[in-house]
């Protein structure tokens, strides 16, 4: 377990604005609050927030985030309140802890895999500050790394499935590629242990258990580039079991046909050198057609930039090569956190430390190709949406500003026409209450109840308006005398 001074030293090494006192206080507060609690592994509970803080420190997040990471389970699992956190650690830390606590209350019904995309949006929508999401991801990482200690196999499977459906895509979305791969492999091992073992065994049988073949290819690549006077940092790795298995399934290919088992990275100094290196490598090895991608001129939505190609290695193996500059490599490794690191060097203390969060939002809004545009549009759209649940946990997505009447009509016209009342999060509430993301909404119906003209004052979906008008019109036709049309006009 990371010790108090080690953690502080770590954060100090990259965050010039560090408040050491705050970090020390958070460490001690969390240690005391969790007291004698233990994890299923038998480890003291406190080891968990420390691991989470350590992961975020390795991503070089600011000291506020690290303090919040240390405290992230205190409100949920100890007697400490959010007010205690605010009094002791300030508004920002309390805001982050509150956000993580809110997210931990979400449950993901696994019976409908198609809802996964909606849940990802829900998590993003609820994490008002991206740092909330980063703490949540680091939290999930440690929970996955200690998953095997959980005794209940059903709970283990559920956690693994959520990780694969929700958290791996979220990690990828914010550019944390290594974390995404770790999530996938740990979940794969839990969900399909046989396929996981077979894939690992096949990798071993290809003599890839030793580093030798990789080293030889690295030397070869380095030499070829050196001869062209390009100095590059070259390294290689075997791709993860999950990514190999998934490609075999989706592309219906054999193990041997995959280009993706061996992956090499060539990191050069300048942008033109990327294209030069590409030319040299294409000239020196057999190129496998159909694998070239230029993410430099068309970056991915998470700002990832790189050239990708696939060639036949000197040993007649297929291999993938990624070519990029040091800066691009940093973005690929650290994701959005890299932006913060860049900014930090430029202006240390002018309150722009969180510029990278704004940068993220900006880059999420900058599209460079049609599929990314679609992705971005989705991102924008959900900012105007609320995600609510029925009492059975079914997710209903509606535009922002909706009330229980809109919710009722979204479920069913009959339900909408007979609303008698509503419970929100288990509490009876007025029908004009504006719904928030995460609300659980239970509509109470009664045969006798019918739509009222006053509903028009607060409904906002077209469907609800239309149904209410239709009902009132029909009613007006039937009882011309006591239903003047002015009823439809809002005061
Ligand atoms: Mn936790």
Can you give me a brief rundown of this structure?
This protein is an alpha+beta fold.
Description:
The protein has 491 residues and is α+β, with helices and mostly antiparallel strands. The chain folds into three domains: 4-196, Hypothetical protein af1432; 205-336, 2-Layer Sandwich (Beta Polymerase, domain 2); 383-474, Roll (Ubiquitin-like (UB roll)). It is 54% helix and 11% strand. The protein contains 21 helices and ten strands. A five-stranded mixed β-sheet has the order 1-2-5-4-3. Strands 9-8-10 form a three-stranded antiparallel β-sheet. Strands 6-7 form a two-stranded antiparallel sheet. Helix 1 packs antiparallel against helix 2 and helix 3 packs across helix 8. The chain is globular. The termini are far apart. Bound molecules: manganese (II) ion. Residues 48, 72-73, 139 line the site of manganese (II) ion (MN).
Round the mean pLDDT to the nearest integer and report it: 81
State the name of the first-level CATH class of the largest domain: Mainly Alpha
Ligand set: manganese (II) ion
Into how many domains do the coordinates divide?
A: 3
Q: Based on the coordinates given, report the CATH architecture of the largest domain.
A: Orthogonal Bundle
The description of the largest β-sheet is:
5 strands, mixed
Shape: globular
- Could you give the count of β-strands? 10
What CATH calls the topology of the largest domain is Hypothetical protein af1432
CATH superfamily of the largest domain: Hypothetical protein af1432
């Amino acid at each position: 377990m990371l010790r108090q001074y080690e953690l502080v030293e770590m954060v100090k090494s990259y965050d010039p604005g560090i408040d050491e006192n705050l970090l020390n206080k958070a460490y001690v507060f969390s240690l005391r609050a969790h007291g004698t609690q233990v994890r299923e592994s038998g480890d003291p509970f406190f080891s968990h927030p420390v691991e989470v803080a350590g992961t975020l420190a390795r991503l070089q997040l600011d000291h506020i985030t690290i303090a919040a990471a240390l405290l992230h389970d205190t409100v949920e699992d100890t007697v400490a309140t959010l007010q205690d956190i605010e009094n002791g650690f300030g508004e920002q830390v309390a805001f982050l802890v509150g956000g993580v606590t809110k997210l931990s209350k979400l449950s993901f019904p696994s019976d409908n895999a198609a809802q996964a995309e909606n849940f990802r949006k829900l998590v993003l929508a609820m994490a008002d500050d991206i740092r909330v999401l980063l703490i949540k991801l680091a939290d999930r990482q440690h929970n996955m790394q200690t998953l095997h200690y959980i005794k209940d196999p059903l709970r283990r499977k559920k956690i693994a499935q959520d990780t694969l459906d929700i958290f791996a895509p979220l990690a990828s979305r914010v550019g944390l590629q290594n974390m995404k791969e770790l999530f996938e492999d740990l979940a794969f091992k839990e969900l399909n242990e046989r396929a996981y073992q077979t894939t690992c065994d096949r990798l071993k049988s290809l003599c890839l258990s030793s580093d030798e073949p990789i080293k030889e290819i690295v030397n070869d690549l380095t030499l070829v580039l050196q001869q062209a006077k390009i100095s590059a940092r070259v390294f290689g790795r075997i791709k993860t079991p999950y990514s190999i298995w998934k490609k075999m399934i989706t592309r219906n290919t054999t193990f041997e046909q995959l280009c993706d088992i061996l992956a090499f990275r060539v990191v050069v100094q300048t942008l033109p050198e990327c294209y030069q290196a590409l030319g040299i490598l294409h000239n020196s090895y057999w190129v496998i057609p159909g694998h070239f991608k230029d993410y430099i001129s068309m970056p991915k939505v998470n700002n990832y930039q790189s050239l990708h190609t696939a060639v036949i290695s000197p040993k007649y193996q297929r291999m993938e090569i990624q070519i990029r500059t040091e800066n691009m490599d940093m973005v690929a490794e650290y994701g959005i956190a890299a932006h913060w690191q860049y900014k930090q060097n430029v202006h240390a203390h002018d309150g722009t430390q969180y510029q990278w969060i704004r940068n993220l939002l900006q880059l999420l809004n900058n599209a460079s190709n049609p599929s990314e545009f679609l992705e971005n549009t989705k991102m924008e759209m959900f900012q105007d949406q609320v995600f609510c649940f029925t009492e059975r946990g079914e997710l209903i997505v509606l535009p922002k500003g909706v009330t229980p009447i809109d919710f009722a009509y979204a479920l069913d016209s009959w339900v909408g026409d007979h609303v008698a009342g509503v419970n929100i999060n288990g509490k009876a509430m007025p029908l004009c209450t504006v719904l928030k993301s995460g609300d659980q909404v239970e509509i109470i119906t009664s045969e006798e109840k019918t739509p009222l003209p006053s509903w028009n004052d607060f409904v906002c979906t077209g469907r609800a308006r239309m149904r209410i008008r239709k009902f009132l019109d029909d009613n007006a036709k039937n009882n011309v005398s006591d239903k003047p049309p002015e009823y439809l006009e809002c005061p």
